[in-house]
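Below: protein 1.
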Amino acid sequence: MGYVAVSGGSEAIEASIRLLDYYRSGTAKDLELEAIEHKLSLLVDRVMGEAGLYSRTYAALALKQCEGSVEEAVFLLRAYRSTLTRNYYSLPADTGAMRVVRRISSAFKDIAGGQILGATYDYTHRLINFSIESENAAALRTEALARLDRETPEEITPCPRVSDTLKKDGLVDSYPEDDTPPYDVTANLLEFPAPRSARLQTLSRADTGYISGLAYAALRGYSLSHPTVGELRCGYAEICVPYLFDDAECLFVGEILLTEAELLTEADDTDKLKLAAGYGAVFGRNDSKAIAMAILDRELDSGGPYPPQQEEFVLTHGDSMEMNGFISHLKLPHYVTFQSKLDAVRKTREQCNE
């Protein structure tokens, strides 16, 4: 359930909305959707992931409409998503065959297919570059494209998973095959204990800051152990739907950019002979959320006593729209309930003074 805080008479509300137009306009210069979509791509990716709708253009439009507020953009995009007709269910995407643009491993130096740093701020100096204020965007784009054309190999081959060899050797636990249709949390009420498909879907759509905070708490000691990034990859995965007239065939409908993480850690106390894996996958480029999601996936398997290990606590409180909506509802009039609190305090003070 989402809360929307609205108060005041109709005239006050209309005036408030007109004032929003003033703040949103900001300047006479217009902000084009293309600029938001491509120059604020990490912000667009976050909104798409938390909204559960892969559309860069609509995510950019939502951000423009709400002055860059992530939670408001997620609200708008989810509301629009709820109006769309669901014509097909895609087949499981083979992320092992994705067209990789970034791929690293903290577990091994030399991995099959090589380490691919890709586009990341991890290795920058993190100092403000004041020259960007007056940069030539067209020239920068032309130069970057020319450099990519020279450096990109003619044929890109799929990179095998780092954990595949460990799983073949029996050193890492694999999740058992499950042919049960994925639990759709957008069409069904989340119940506990939740199936793993519901857990992963909920974590993927959860607020990035919330997920990262819980993962950080787990790493600081409220968890099993310190995990290792077996593999972090970002790339384009093909999306296919079943062919209507032949179940053995499928139709390619497009590709989406995903970030996927697999973390390795010690198994539980009953099995010291294997490692266990946690998994995370999110829309777009979002390393931190994919890693945080993989940490919590493993923590929730343990069912331990700490908050990051409690399924109901983790899955119930991370939804961006629910979280911000419930907090926003505090702006609604609470005159009667607050007066009752005051009356109770006054009555208690009178009894103490008698």
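Below: protein 2.
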Amino acid sequence: MQNILITGGSGLIGRAITRLLEEQGKTVAWLSRNPEKYGQKAFFWDPSTQKIDHEALYWADSIIHLAGEGVADERWTASRKNEILESRVKSSRLLYEELRTLKDKPKVFVSSSAVGYYGFDTGDKLIYEGEPAGKDFLAGVVKKWEAEIEKINDTGIRTVIFRTGIVLAKEGGALKEMLKPPVAAPLGSGKQYMSWIHVEDLARMYIYAMENHGLSGIYNAVGPVPVTNRVLTERAASFRGKPFVNLGVPAFALKLLLGEMAQMVLGGNRVSSEKIQGAGFRYKYGDLNQALQQIFV
């Protein structure tokens, strides 16, 4: 499988996957609204109008689907919440509608999803893939998103869905936001669990799923050792050389600042990686100190 088509390729995870695939000698193309914008082979698509360059799907041996508006990029107004949902559902639906008509289909479809499926706050219970969906906004989004992706499996294409946790990376993501203030501090009680994964391990997981024919269905894409918000913040601050104060940012202040989105940072999930490890995947940065050292040192 030499030709890999990626949606959301210009994002943090997409770029990491692209880099690893190209190092392996694979050819990568992105689906993009602005194919000429990047120095990457790209095909046009626009999920909002359900348009796509059909040549892209004929070209692809495998598809990695990461597209979707950033959940934490803006305050959750009614229109923003709709954008978050529609960007995921419409993009997945467009791919399904096109793929089901193809005679010569790609061999595998690996899609992003989110641990948000389980709900904003599942306490300290260890969460496996068979748990029911939560009742909040994000859980509803992920449930509808996955329902669209699962249709692709019905076309005969092997389909893998990764419920992704908090991605740790040098280039962006959660760490950048956590360490933005002059002094690092836990959020709320700091006791909420954060199921983190190093971006390189996540990229390697996508490639592993693509190349291993025994994998299909839903897997949690998290590291093997979830930690509390306080532990992650304190250790990240230490590796970054930043002061840490063990006084939680009050929940009411976060609610004033973030609105409904505050539930996402005040809650947490302790998510199991047992299933993907049982499928043979091995982490390069499974230990938090090891992961933070690679990022900051």
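The chain has a mean pLDDT of 96.
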